[in-house]
Every structure is written in C-alpha cells, then in structure tokens.
Amino acid sequence: MKNQTTPGTPEDGPASSLLERQILSVFLALILVLGTVGNMIVILAVILSHKLRTKTNLFVVNLSIADFLTSVHLVWIIVAFLSEDGWPLPDGLCVWCGFVLITCIGASVYTLACIAINRLVLIRYGPAAYRVLCRPVIIAAMLATIWAIPLCMASIPIVSDFGELGYSSRFRTCIKNHAHQYAKQYDILLSLTYYPVSTAVIIISYFKVFLYLRSRVKKLAPGVAEATVSSVVQESDLRSRPAQQDARPKLRERLDKRQVQVTKNMFYVVCLFFLCTTPYGLALLCNHLICLRLTSYAAVVLSLNSCINPVVYATKHPDFKKVIQCILLCRPRKIPQRIKFCGDT
C-alpha cells in the first residue's frame, strides 16, 4: 500500500487521549449491538411477512442492509481505538473496513434521500405518479445508483494515488490514512459527494410534503366544518345556534393539532438526519486543530445513524410494528400474512 505523507501533518500523536477513545468505544459498542440487532429484525420482518414485501419497503430493507454492514464493521473501529501500538491485525482487514464503511455510509445517506423522494411523490402527487416511480426498472436504477456512487468513491484510493484507505495513527481509527498527501482533498471530495445533494433532497422533499399537507388541511377545514355543523342540525332540532358555533372552534382545534403533529414528524426526520451527518461532514471540511480533536466524536455521532434508522423508518410503520413485536416476543405464527416454510402446519 502507498504511504505518502504530507509534510508538517500532525501525525506525532493521537487527536484524542486513551480515556476519550475508551469512552467512545463504549458508545460504539452500544451502537454496534443496537444497529446489528435492530437492522436484522427489520430485514427478518420483511422476509417473514408477505404484507411487508412491498416496493416501498425495498428502500427500507436497503437502508437496513447498509446500516447492518456499518454496525458490524464498527468492531474494527473499536479495536483500532483501543490499540496503543498501532493496528494489531493484518493491514488488508483495515483497508477492507474503510472500504465497507465509506460505501455503506454513502449508501445509507442516498437511501434516506430516495425514501424522501418516494414519500413526496406518494403524498404530493398521488398513487398514479407513485406507480410510475415504482416501476421495476426505475426502482432497480435507483438502487443501483445508491450503491454505485459510494462504491466508486471508496474505490478511488485503491485504483489511484488520491487518498489511502487504512489505519490512521492520529485518529487511531481504521478508515482512511490521514497522513497521506491527498487525505484532506479526499475528505473534501467525500463530503461534497455525500452531503450537499442528499441533504437538499431530504429538506426540499419533506418541506414540500409539509406545505402540501398544511394546504390540504386549510382547504378541507371550511367544508368539513360546514358538514359537521349541518349534521349537528339534522341530528337534533333541540341544538341551539350557540352550540352550532362551538363546533367550529373544536374542529379548528383538532385541525391545528393535526398540523402540529405533521410539523413535528417532519421536524424529527430532518433533525435526526442533520444531527447524525452534519458534524462529520463539517469535520471533513475543517482543518483547524479543534476540528481534528472533534473528528472522532463526530464519527461516533455519524455511526449513531445506523441504529436510529430502524426506529424512525420501520418501527413507526403500523405493519412493521406488529411483525417486529411478534419477532421480539418469539411468536412467529402470529405474524400477519406470515410466509409458511417447510415444516409449518
């Protein structure tokens, strides 16, 4: 492997102390367990239930596969964090770990963007447009693009001299060699490739969904209120006019609550994405000493995304909830529309 270092690069000592890395390793171990188990359950739920085998859930499964691979390979990051005398295992394993993590993190980010596009088309443009988007050819093209771009980005240091995958003695991690002369340029390329476009797609998609739902509520509110008041009059002639007028504020209150709930859902999705990806993206672009010290923390926050996604994009789904509950309670026969295997009665 190449080992070209930049003159003056501060590689003489780690960016974080052993105690800091031990604390971060504990968090990584928790993320590893939760991410591995959570994403396995999501994948298993789709395998066991016919009801969950939809075209939409292809992206949920794709997200879980990427996050599962990320979670599994965090074990090598923990080994690198806790090793004081350099990488103790074969160098090829460290290079493979960096290749997988760069690929899967990119695939996860792009899958989140595709999920946002799917939700926008379904809610804003209706089932007809959504059926066009869900054509097998289009879905296959989207899935291929999700993986092709990260694979190309992870392959650049392998097929060229632009960056290097492997162990970093400064960060005590096993992704990229930050002593390489083009390490910073490669970090900038990764940051610009993964984050701006996907972030813009997610923000715009969910913001359009929110604006559309809010406009729909405003349009429906007068008609629904009139229908409600009319039905009240027809049900009983004993209701007075003040009682009819009280129906509008109550209905408006319910509609306002609905708007607040929609706002919260969009806010949670966007904020969780930003909280997990933005710190590491900014750390890649920054060359200040403080940024170097915070890079390890930002990487752990980025890894957190791999165990949050199953909760946000799967367990809130009513059908997923039922299947996951049956899996956790070891009641496979109660899974809705369960797939029968050999030996089932």
Question: Can you describe this structure in just a few lines?
Answer:
The chain is mostly helical and 345 residues long. Strand 1 and strand 2 form a beta hairpin.
Structural write-up:
The chain is mostly helical and about 350 residues long. About 75% of the residues lie in helices and about 0% in strands. The chain is built from nine helices and two strands, in the order H-H-H-H-E-E-H-H-H-H-H. The chain has a two-stranded antiparallel sheet. Helix 3 packs parallel to helix 6. It starts with 17 loop residues before the first helix and ends in a 17-residue tail after the last helix. The relative contact order is 0.14. The N terminus and C terminus are likely disordered.
Instruction: Please tell me what the overall shape is.
Output: globular
Distance between the termini: 56 Å
Instruction: Please give the share of residues in helix.
Output: over 70%
Largest sheet: 2 strands, antiparallel
Sequence stretches where pLDDT stays below 50 over 5 or more residues: 1-12, 224-245, 341-345
Output the helix-strand order.
HHHHEEHHHHH
Q: What's the pLDDT, averaged over the residues?
A: 78
- Specify the structural class: mainly alpha
CA-atom Rg in angstroms:
25 Å
| Count of individual beta strands | 2
Main sheet strand line-up: 1-2
How many helices in DSSP terms? 9
The fraction of residues assigned to DSSP E strands is: under 5%
